[in-house]
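Ops channel
N.P.: pipeline sanity check, posting one input/output pair.
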């Protein structure tokens, strides 16, 4: 399962243009540092920039109640791409663990409410989160009922019109015909 490169590249570029710029990080102990909250300033900025989108992908990945390893790998790759490779696997693993804990403790609706509040002022980010979640659902060519329901819910949570949602989904479908590199 892979999220198509054109989708990630387009969304990464939009995020970079939003003013939250990533930079490089040098540290061999990413999981330990992330768990301790001791990230390099640049990695912390990248984490802040991609976290709402990453958590939205996580919620889509977990919509059917099963976190498959190939889905987790796809989301890790998408997060790396969105952060311009600033966020490393250890940091991303800690992010996914935190997302799972939040989901278990707070429930999906509360998580979506908080994500929507954090990106509501940036329509491009809301659309990016929607597109990435839809890409996760479409990546294995089998959209589960729960995934389809969540796609529909995201349009409401993120304030995306039905017309715009269809345009985004059509673009994702078109991206599927480009070779993945």
């Amino acid at each position: 399962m892979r999220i198509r490169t054109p989708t990630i590249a387009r969304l990464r570029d939009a995020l970079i243009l939003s003013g939250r710029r990533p930079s490089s990080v040098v540290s061999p102990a990413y999981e330990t540092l992330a768990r301790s909250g001791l990230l390099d300033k640049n990695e912390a900025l990248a984490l802040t920039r991609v976290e709402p989108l990453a958590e939205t992908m996580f919620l889509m990945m977990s919509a059917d109640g099963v976190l498959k390893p190939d889905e987790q790998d796809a989301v890790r790759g998408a997060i790396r791409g969105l952060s311009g490779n600033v966020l490393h696997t250890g940091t991303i693993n800690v992010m996914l663990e935190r997302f799972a804990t939040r989901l278990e403790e707070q429930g999906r609706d509360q998580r979506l409410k908080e994500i929507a509040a954090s990106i509501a002022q940036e329509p491009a980010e809301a659309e990016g989160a929607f597109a990435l979640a839809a890409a996760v659902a479409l990546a294995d060519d089998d959209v589960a009922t729960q995934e389809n329901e969540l796609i529909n819910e995201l349009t409401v949570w993120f304030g995306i019109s039905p017309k715009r949602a269809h345009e985004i989904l059509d673009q994702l479908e078109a991206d599927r015909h480009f070779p993945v590199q």
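N.P.: looks fine end to end. The CA atoms of residues 127 and 160 lie 7 Å apart.
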